[in-house]
Automatic annotation (TrEMBL):
<dbReference type="GO" id="GO:0005975">
    <property type="term" value="P:carbohydrate metabolic process"/>
</dbReference>
<dbReference type="GO" id="GO:0005829">
    <property type="term" value="C:cytosol"/>
</dbReference>
<dbReference type="GO" id="GO:0097367">
    <property type="term" value="F:carbohydrate derivative binding"/>
</dbReference>
<keyword id="KW-0808">Transferase</keyword>
<comment type="subunit">
    <text>Homodimer.</text>
</comment>
<feature type="active site" description="For Fru-6P isomerization activity">
    <location>
        <position position="364"/>
    </location>
</feature>
<dbReference type="GO" id="GO:0006047">
    <property type="term" value="P:UDP-N-acetylglucosamine metabolic process"/>
</dbReference>
<keyword id="KW-0315">Glutamine amidotransferase</keyword>
<dbReference type="GO" id="GO:0006487">
    <property type="term" value="P:protein N-linked glycosylation"/>
</dbReference>
<dbReference type="GO" id="GO:0004360">
    <property type="term" value="F:glutamine-fructose-6-phosphate transaminase (isomerizing) activity"/>
</dbReference>
<feature type="domain" description="SIS">
    <location>
        <begin position="214"/>
        <end position="359"/>
    </location>
</feature>
<dbReference type="GO" id="GO:0006002">
    <property type="term" value="P:fructose 6-phosphate metabolic process"/>
</dbReference>
<keyword id="KW-0032">Aminotransferase</keyword>
<comment type="function">
    <text>Catalyzes the first step in hexosamine metabolism, converting fructose-6P into glucosamine-6P using glutamine as a nitrogen source.</text>
</comment>
<feature type="domain" description="SIS">
    <location>
        <begin position="42"/>
        <end position="181"/>
    </location>
</feature>
<protein>
    <recommendedName>
        <fullName>Glutamine--fructose-6-phosphate aminotransferase [isomerizing]</fullName>
        <ecNumber>2.6.1.16</ecNumber>
    </recommendedName>
</protein>
<keyword id="KW-0963">Cytoplasm</keyword>
Length: 369
């Protein structure tokens, strides 16, 4: 049932192009518009939404953090993202016009379930983004958008994460579509790019051997840091989470702009630092800032592992290891940038002799609070 792979995680990483394509299937019509009738929240209701609140845990929370950039940019609706386990304890401000999105692969995560119950008690509509048909979270929500990743067995979430991102982009674009934001042309272009993205994920998977080699060479390290900006920041958090749970290594993700506010003190000779570089097109100011961050940490002896778009030559002089990803629109970059981090963590875990599919102390779905 592992389909010839040593671990479910490897199989699930490899299934990502299909999972992404399946999650888009039937949701974009021939004219390039989104058809999400399955949402069961009417266009009229969606036009009334004045605030989006996303609740989730772990990897699903990282998908939510990325969704915030997309939702706010394409719809101009304010969006908050909160760890489900914190949500109801701070007396959040919710009302009938708040749309709460609960993201969960399993649909059984107790923290997320309790957060959505709290939201419904306050009169808010809850939309679940879920991978498991008929599970508790979608059953208790007003509406559900299923991700079509297929069963995810490995404890570390991979293909479910990519499909959660796709579902979040679909919701964001759909909200933009029904509300007619000024980003009409951009939305059309992104829908086109999204429908091609599964090929780009496939291309990334074809070039992962150097990443595996690099991971093996770092098997005796104690710490790995991850830096990113904009949507690259949650990608950095996700890279660090994968490494913690699989390799049992100390790993932290930072917003690169925060380096100078403290974390740069951690940089020492030969410390591996993974940097997710935003596209030099689009928000190029951020690109240039992150290139200076790479220079700064390298000047202090860090071993820089740079994930950058194909054709971005500015990073070459400062990268000890360069991992190339295809060019994508800025907001979609996490779909390709996360894949090398999954492969990296999986290979490090293997090199350290860890149980890849069943990391110690963890369960696939956390049904206690
Ligand atoms: O089933 P869920 O998506 O609700 O699970 C949430 C987290 O427990 C989950 O993403 C966890 O962080 C993964 N093990 C990460 O790889």
């Amino acid at each position: 049932e592992k389909g010839g792979y040593d671990y479910f995680m490897l199989k699930e990483i490899a299934e990502q192009p299909k999972a992404v394509a399946d999650t888009l299937l039937g949701r974009i019509d021939a004219a390039g518009s989104l058809t999400l009738d399955e949402l069961r929240i009417s266009a009229a209701e969606l036009r009334e939404v004045d605030k989006v609140v996303i609740v989730a845990c772990g990897t699903a929370f990282h998908a939510g953090l990325i969704a915030k950039y997309a939702i706010e940019h394409w719809t101009r609706i304010p969006c908050e993202v909160e760890l489900a386990s914190e949500f109801r304890y701070r007396d959040p401000i919710l009302g009938a016009r708040s749309l709460v999105i609960a993201i969960s692969q399993s649909g059984e995560t107790m923290d997320t379930l309790m957060a959505l119950r709290h939201a419904r008690e306050q009169g808010s509509k809850v939309l679940a983004i879920c991978n498991t048909n008929g599970s508790t979270i979608p059953r208790e929500s007003d509406a559900v958008l299923y991700t079509h990743a297929g069963p995810e067995v490995a404890v570390a979430s991979t293909k479910a994460f990519l499909t959660q991102l796709v579902a979040c982009y679909l919701v964001a674009l759909y909200l933009g579509q029904v509300r007619g934001t000024k980003w009409g042309d951009e939305i059309q272009a992104v829908i086109r790019d999204l429908s091609r993205i599964s090929n780009e994920v496939e291309r990334v998977l074809e070039t992962m051997e150097p990443v595996r080699e690099l991971a093996r060479s770092l098997a005796d390290k104690k710490t790995v840091l991850f830096l990113g900006r904009h949507v690259g920041y949650p990608v950095a958090l996700e890279g660090a989470l994968k490494l913690k749970e699989l390799a049992y290594m100390h790993a932290e993700g930072f917003a690169a702009g925060e380096l100078k506010h403290g974390p740069i003190a951690l940089i020492e000779e030969d410390l591996p630092v993974v940097v997710v570089v935003p596209s030099p097109r689009g928000r190029s100011v951020l690109h240039d800032k992150i290139v200076s961050n790479i220079q700064e940490i390298r000047a202090r002896g860090a071993r820089t592992i740079v994930i950058a778009e194909e054709g971005d030559e500015t990073v070459v002089p400062y990268a000890d290891h360069l991992i190339r990803i295809p060019a994508t629109p800025t907001l979609l970059q996490p779909l390709v940038a996360t894949v090398p981090l999954q492969v990296f963590a999986c290979e490090l875990a293997t090199a350290r002799g860890n149980e890849v599919d069943q990391p110690r102390n963890l369960a696939k779905s956390v049904t206690v609070e």
